[in-house]
Amino acid sequence: MRPSIVMEATGHYYSPVVQFLDEHQYLNIVINPLILHIAKKTDLRRLKTDAADAQLLGALFYKEEFEPKTGPTNAQPFLP
Known about the structure:
Elements lengths: L4 E4 L6 H9 L4 E4 L1 H10 L7 H14 L17
Parallel strand pairs: 1-2
């Protein structure tokens, strides 16, 4: 079983990563940065580190019902 990959859409930088994951048949979910920004505002700790962002992405993945995009590429970020 392959792991699910959850990432934030970061300009055009995430597109090659998504393409690689799609080619190797990994389940990947790209979250819109606006969703992550709103979620950060509700957190009382106000940390701005990569580790805190990764933890927040994981929490969003398990709390919300995000679905992977289907088709030749998942390169479009998730919008609710």
